[in-house]
Amino acid sequence: MAGIYVHIPFCKSKCTYCDFASFPKEIGKTESYFACLYRETEGRGKALKNKVFDTIYFGGGTPSIVPAKFIAGEIRQIKKFFNLAKNPEITIELNPGTVDSEKIKAYKSVGINRFSIGLQTGYDDQLKELNRIHTAKDFLTTCNLLKGENISADILIGLKNQTAEQVKKTIDLALAGGVKHISMYALTPEVGTPIYTDYLNGELLSDDEVADIYDAARSYLAEKGIYRYEVSNFAAHGFESRHNYNYWQRGEYIGLGVSASSFIDGRRFTNTFNLNEYMNAVIYNKTPEISNEEISGDDAEFEFIMLSLRTEKGMDVEKFNKEFSADFKTKYAAAVKKNEKYTEFIGNYFRIKDEYLYVQNSIVTDFLR
Amino acid sequence: MSIDKSKIRNFCIIAHIDHGKSTLADRLMEKTGQVSERDMEDQLLDSMDLERERGITIKLTPVRMFYKAKDGNEYIYNLIDTPGHVDFTYEVSRSLKACEGAILIVDASQGVQAQTLANAYLAIDNDLEIMPVINKIDLPSANPDEAAAEIEDILGVDASDAPRISAKSGLNVEEVLESVITKIPPPKGDDSAPLKALIFDSYYDNFKGVICFVRIVDGTVKVGTRIKTFMSDKQFDVTEVGIFSPKMTPKDSLSAGEVGYIAASIKSIEDTAVGDTITEAQNPAKEPLPGYKKALPMVFSGVFPLDGSKFNDLKDALLKLKLNDAALSIEPDNSAALGFGFRCGFLGLLHMDVIQERIEREFDLEIITTAPSVSYKVYKTDGAVLTVENPTHLPPTTEIDYMEEPIIFAAIFTPPEYVGPIMELCQKKRGVYKDMVYLDKTRVQLKYELPLNEIIYDFFDSLKSRTKGYASFDYEPKGYAKSDLVKLDMLLNGEICDALSIIVHKDKAYERGRQIAERLKEVIPRQMFEIPVQAAVGGKVIARETVKAFRKDVLAKCYGGDVTRKKKLLEKQKEGKKKMRSIGTVEIPSEAFIEILKTDNDN
Description:
The complex is a heterodimer. Chain A contains 15 helices and 15 strands. By secondary structure, chain A is an alpha/beta fold. Chain A has two domains: 246 residues, TIM Barrel (Alpha-Beta Barrel); 52 residues, no CATH class.
């Protein structure tokens, strides 16, 4: 099975940590952007007729900021040109304050069945500092509109002066809203974002402090029946994100829209990050891709290892051996041996032990060849 | 055809650092038309990048100039450059041997400095005529009269008619050229006597073999002459002789009094040791010229390739450097922590630094240098005596009767107000006070005996920082003295890392152990597990620090668009790891081995 990712590059205002392709000032181009998106969807869909897709994910930006008809139109377009499995998981990212009951109704009517809310933190002063447009109250209002639905919330750890207690309270807020899935990301200061300046000035929390908060939040979530299934993702049993899990299995996916990345038939390709360039390319029937490379041999194997070791379950060794016609235990004997203290084989799976999942880089790099 | 010896002048320029030696050399070449102003890259004689960057001269470079004097005659001036750092005293003595006189530069605002004195005395010891020149007279703070008085008072050299110049602007440089004729004697020597040529430097050329820089004392040498040296029985046919102008320029012959080079397809530098005398194979001179002072390495350090598979490349690089550097000693070494490498002997820390940088730059090799050591004498209980330059080779304590360490005799020059801090420093470094002389009201010379192992780390830096840069010092070896020494081992994660062991005085062991442990804690990055860093003497732990295990080493997000970027990040992380050496299970950055030196910060 494969996934479809659709990028919506619009938002109301840029958050201080955001380095995604999102353009608050370009919202006037919504209509023409979707015209291009539909066109790209048609072309990509026709070329991928032989593949079955079982998840769709609308990410951004803030996909919920555009009128629901555009999203509905894109789903129609996907259904028309792609080979969709039965009961696909269709997720949309949304931000509190950008949806009302009408919009939710429209989403549900076109088959959207998973809603990922950008909560970030339950503290209004912190939200303001991050340049978010909503308050903790807005979050609950949105959750109310989504009562009974499969809701996920994003939360951030490592904010200026943040405490573990605050993160627990944020988790409480999410759970009160009926959330069954939480993505908990450590704030990553990317070059060019305002938060990077804070990082340079040493105002963000240290790695040790972030790790303390992470550990505290992880056990708190487990107490509440929300379990880690990937480094930054936690869910009640059965509520894991199928779309994202596919990435960590090194499954195939097609990315539609500006800046979207794809992995199809062993090739990774990425569309331009420039909105006008993207639209221009689609209009003139040129490729919007700015890179396209085949991943093979040891590189492909490493991707498989790197991605699957992010998950709690770990890497399916048999699947690895089959996919690469290799014997993992023999070929990577040295790296496995070197990390025997931090990893384990459970049944058919090779995994990083619980307590080392958050310090996995140096384990994983030993598998680079 | 032989050259009129009365028209030859062989001289060098000696000076304290920064008093303008290289600038004056450039100006002399320019004024004699050797190089046009346009062609001049700043300070031509300092030909290595390293020399130019550091403003120091390491290799000797002779230059022949033609000077049309006011008396109507044309003179040949051979200028032999000298290095200006205390580590290279030996190289200075070599170049002095090839000269009859020395131009002594004194900065008009700074007067006679430590290095001025040291070099001037070396020149006087070598029977050279001293011709003082007062430089930088265009500086606002210049006081040429006082500088001249100092030269007369301190050195006892007549400075009444010393040229007063600005090498930088070229002011009065003509006077220097004129004075050379009268102040510096022409060479003596007999063209028809059996050949005697002093090798004062050599360098290896890939095509011509060893190029010997020579001063012809007696006789004549030309292409085809069959030569031999006194130290080796091998004979060679001369393939080329020539002069430096300043590039090597072939000539038909070189005769008594001249300075130039000889090439004879010599494949090994060992056959033409610097300081040796070249003579004719068929008609040899009866005895060699008095030999040079042999350069003795004072500081020893392990040099290992960062990438163990580059051992042979490192060997080639060291051998090539040795061709040009008689003072460098090399022998194979083997460390449990660092694998195969070499134990190298250097004149001092600067020399060590220079060699290290040349290996990295000229041979593109990444290396690990271990903490420097000196050469200890170990008297064993069974009566045997060992020389130990590598702490790893120290026998077990039970087999040691007693040990001796090298002592140096240090002369420190300083303005009087810093005498206190310097005495305190020397005390700290186990120095024994010998003497204090007021050279004049602004300058004091302090004499101390100090253990060499106390000064090889950072004595010079400490001295400079305690005296705001005013003090300078010189040292010479003064034999060995019995000392209570111990081997200080560093343990990483419970295992001794041999490359980090040092030999220290017993009273210093605790302090150094603590400092090194602290320093290692800073330079060793956090890893998957907690790493105890311990210092131990004779199996007893005397200090401990801990490198905590890291808690967060993960990429927060990894979705569809992140895969390629994350992989690149991890590749970079892996590259970083490659710059580390695994000591047991612990990974250490290569610079850690030398970083531990920087613990001696006493300020």
